[in-house]
Amino acid sequence: EELGMSKDSNFDIRSPFCVLCGQTDDCPEKYGEKRTNVTYNLTVHYYCLLMSSGIWQRGKENEGLYGFLITDIRKEVNRAAKLKCNICKRKGASIGCVASKCKRSYHYPCGVRRECIFQFMEDFRSYCWEHKPVQKFPDEEPAGSSQCTICLDVVEQIPTYAVLKSPCCRNAWFHRQCLQYQALSAGIYFFRCTVCNNKTEFQKEMLRMGIHIPEKDASWELEENAYQELLQCYQHCDVKRCLCRKGRDYNEPEGKWEIKRCQYCGSCGTHLACSSMKSREENWECMECKNILGKSGKYSKKKKRSLATSEMSDGTTCLLEEPSPKCPRQSPGSQGSFLIQSPKIVCQNNLSSCSYLPASNRVTMSLSPLKSSRRHCSRKKYLRKEKMGAYKILKELRNQVNTKTTRLNINTENFWNSALKGFRQRNFSPTNTIQIQFTNCKNESKLGTSASSKRKHFFRLLMRYLQNSSLFEGSSAKNLALDFQAVKDNLYFEAGKMIAVSLVHGGTPPGFFSKTLFNCLIYGPENVKPALEDVADIDVAQRVKMIKYANSLSSLKSTINNCYEFLAAAGCLRPVTALCQKNTLVNDILFHHVIKRIISPLESFRQGLKTLGVLEKMQMYPHVFSSILCHKIERLSARTICDLFKIHSTSNVNEAGTANFWISYLQDVDNGESVVTLEDILRFATGSHSVPCVGFVPEPTVKFLPIHYPTGNKFFNCLELPITSTYEQFKNKMDFTIRKTLRVEME
C-alpha cells in the first residue's frame, strides 16, 4: 500500500498534537496551519514540516501532508526522537542550526521563543540564537524612537529580534509581528515596503530575517464578491430638487426619468427631466466636479431653467431651489421687508398642515435696514441659508431615529468615561432615542425636567470635551492630534460616532473643525494641501518657518543641517541644490506632520462619522456642512428668531397689532435697546442657548393670547405672548418677565 497517497477527506483540522514538536497549539500565524491525516493518525504544523532538517517534499501537493509523504514524515519523527532540544531539554528536536560546527537542535516553537531565525526560502535554513543573521546599521545613524508604519505604535530604533528596519527607506521601522501579519495577508504578489513600495529588495531582506511570505494572492483578492459593487451602475438622482414622483431611485430607460451619471466621476446622477436635459446624449456634470473644474479654469458655468446657481466670492457654486409658484418674489428694493404669512402662519384649527390664509389676514411687517455693509449682509444671508440647508438635511437623517429609548447614565464628575461607557454599551443603537440621566449633578435643577433639555445639555458638554481633548490640536480651528493611547483604545472612531449622533439627535454641532480637517474628510487626505497655520506644535512651526523664509542657499542648507533629525524622522531629508526647492520641502513637511502621521486616526474618525449616514451627506453637500462644522455659531439676529418661530393665527383682530409689536421688539433687542438679549428670548422659550443643527422638535411657535404676562413653554417650544394695546406695554412686560424668569432659574 502506498503510504503517500491521501484524499482530502482524510484531513481533519481538529487534532491533538504535532508529531514533530509535541505541541497542541493551533496558531497559523506562528506555526503554520495544523492538519491531521486521519488514516495514519498523523498531525503536524506546516512550519515544523518545512523547517525539519531531515525531510524533503518528494510528493505532489495532494499527496501525504502538504506534499510530504507519510513514510518520510515517520522517518523524520524517528530521527528526531534521538535528538534532545537545547531549549526545553526534551527529545524530538527535528530542526538544527546550519552554522558550521554548531550542534544545537530544537523544536520549531522553542526556536521561535528563543528568537531563532527560520528562512522560508531556498533550502529552508535555520539559525540558532547565537548564529542568526542580524541587520547592520551605520555607526553614525542616531538611535531613538520612531513609528511602526503598519500599526503606528512607537518602536525603538534598536536592532533587535522584534524590530526590523526597511532596507530601502532610511527611517522605516517595523515590528516583526506586524510584518509577519502583513506578509500573510498580502502574499508574495503584494507584500512590499509600506513607505516606498519597493518590492524586490524589501522581500529579499525580510526573507533573510525570517519573515514567511506565502506564495499566494492577497487575502482581499480572494474574498468572494469582494468587488461586486464595482459591477453595479449608480442609479440615484442627486439634484437638490428631484421632480420624479416615484422617487430618486426610479430609472426609466429611454425616457425622461432615465438617470444620467456625471461624465467625470460617475458617482452622482440625475434624472434627465430634473436637469432639463432633452436627450441622454447630453453631457452632465455634478456640482463637485463643476467646482473642481471651475477652480482650475476648465469649466464655464451654464444657466439652467430648473435650477439657479449662486456664485460666492470664493469661486464656489451652490444650487438653490427656485421659489415655489405659491411664494411671491420680493422686489430688489425690499430686502428689509417680509410677509408673516404661509407657511409661517398656521391656522390653530389645523396644526398638522400649513394652510394659506386669505389676503386680508396676511400681516406685512418690515425690519429696519441693518447698519452693516452690503457685503456683510450678503455673507450673513449666505451662511444663514447654508445652515438652514444643513438643518433640512439632518432632519431627513433624523427619520432613522425610532421611539425605542436607550438610557445613558452620565456621572458629571467623571463625564468622559461615563459617556464613553454609554456609547459602548451592548444595547446602544444610534437609531434609538437617547435618554440622559445625570448623577452627582450639583445644579440639576438648571437642566430642566424635559428629556430634550437634558439631551441638549449632554451633547453640548460632549462637544466641549472633545474640542479640548487630546484627540484634537490647535487653538480655534482644530486638526486631529496623534495620541497613541487613543489609537489603541479606538477613541477616534468613538469621537466621530459621537459627533454624528449629536448632529442627528439635535445636539450642538462641533464648530471647531479646521478647513484642512474638513477637506480631508470630504475629499480624502491625498487631495488636501495643509497650511502653516495647521501646525499646532510651536517647535515644528518654527522649524518650518526657518526653512520657508530662508533667503539664500547657504542659510537653507544650514537650517536643514540643524533640523537633521526632525527631517529624517519625517522622511523629508534630501540634498538641496537650489533655493527654489525649499517650497517643495515645506509642503512635504506640512503634509507629513499635519496629515500623513495621523492617517490611521483620520480613517477611524471617518468611519465613526459614517454613523447614521452623516459622512455621506457631508460629502454630498460640503458647502452646507462647512457652515456648521468649521464656523462658530453666529450671533442670533432678529430675522433668525422671526424665521424660527411660527406664528399661530386666530381670527382675533388685535393679533395683527401684537404681531407688529413682536417684530419691533425683536429689532429693538437686536439693536441693544432692551435689557434682554436674543439669546435670552431663545432660552426663555426653548431652554436652549443656540439653534441646534436639526432645529427644534417640536418647531418653535408664537401665540398671542389675552394673558397678563408672557409664558415660555420649554416642553413644546411655545412662546405665549400677551395682547396689548400699546408697544410700550408689550415691551415692558417682555423685559420684566424674561429677565426675572432667567434670574430666578440662575439662582
Automatic annotation (TrEMBL):
The keyword Thylakoid does not apply. Keywords: Ligase, Metal-binding, Nucleus, Transferase, Ubl conjugation pathway, Zinc, Zinc-finger. Residues 15-132 form the PHD-type domain. It comes from the Eukaryota. One of its GO terms (cellular component) is nucleus. Residues 681-747 form the HECT domain. It comes from Upupa epops (Eurasian hoopoe). Pathway: Protein modification; protein ubiquitination. Gene3D superfamilies: Hect, E3 ligase catalytic domain (3.30.2410.10), Hect, E3 ligase catalytic domains (3.90.1750.10), Zinc/RING finger domain, C3HC4 (zinc finger) (3.30.40.10). GO terms for molecular function: ligase activity; ubiquitin-protein transferase activity; zinc ion binding. This is G2E3 ligase. It is found in: Nucleus.
